[in-house]
Amino acid sequence: MIPANFIYHKATSVKEAIALVQTHGEEAKYMSGGHSLLPMMKLRFATPEHIIDISKIDGLSYIKEDGDFLKIGALTTQTDMEYNALILDKYAIFSDAIKLTADPSVRNVGTIGGNIAHGDAANDQPALMLAMRATIVAEGTDGEKEIPIDEFFHGFYMTALEPADILTEIRVPKAKKGSGGAYHKVERKVGDYATAGVAVHVELDDMGVCQEIGIGLTNVSAVPMRLDRGEALLKGKKITEDLIEEVGTMASEDCEPTSDLRGSEAYKRSIVNTITKRMIRLALERAQH
After folding, report:
1. Which residue in 19, 99, 202, 210 is a FRET match for 174, CA 20 to 30 A apart?
2. What angle do CA 58, 163, 226 make, to 5 degrees?
3. In 77-206, which residue ranges form alpha helices assigned H by DSSP?
4. Residues 6+ apart with CB under 8 A from 20
5. Taking the model in full, what pTM does it have?
6. How far is CA 90 from the centre of its chain?
7. Structure confidence by residue, pLDDT tens digits, 217-249
8. Between vectors from CA 123 to CA 246 and to CA 184, what angle results, nearest 5°?
9. Structural domains of the chain, ranges and CATH numbers in brackets
10. Which residues contact 83 (CB under 8 A, 6 or more apart)?
């Protein structure tokens, strides 16, 4: 389908973009790479009258460690991350996800900020953000704000961002000795949205005891979902195979999938069980090396 008519604006700064949204109100929508918004517009699920292109704003594309955080500018593309030496060396969980995200032509343009700001539980990055306990930085009419990831996703395509807010940066705790993460999703074909996916991040002490654990689930609920019960079970313990099996069962019980063209509810619960266990094992393996 063809999107409804709209007026295109190209912002050259964050302040200009915010001013444009204030001028045009609820009928305005930000766009960076466009790979989340444009498909919805083609299906007429979204019909903004004004598109404000923020893709060329300077200073919002970077990957760096600063203090206690890995900081990623919101306009950093998936391809930028895919080939970044820091990501490849210390943050394998991002590499896992990016290789499974769409195809190279999409990754060349699609941004990490757009992937998260869209609030789509089927996107890959939100589960990683939950697993790594990210903080979302946004700028709006009241200045800059920091939003913990557990307060960011509010509902189906709904986030904590106000209409004029621009997501500017993602912060995740810097990789430590004894930390590791992993992500995988099952998809019908290469580049498809996940039938189901699981992200796991773990931090171990010198004795191998789990000090921090994050488990995020992709596309098995209306919003990106944290596996609270599984995290609570593993934290403070040495993670054994019996505990891993128990967490896999919890994941299959606690997720909220619906039957659709990608599979039945029972099939998706089974996938979540299997992938959760696999990703915990892989995250542990990476944390121990």
Report:
1. 99
2. 90
3. 78-82, 85-90, 92-99, 104-107, 112-117, 125-132
4. 9, 11, 28, 50, 52
5. 0.95
6. 18
7. 999 999 999 999 999 999 999 999 999 999 999
8. 40
9. 7-53 (3.30.43.10), 63-173 (3.30.465.10), 179-287 (3.30.390.50)
10. none
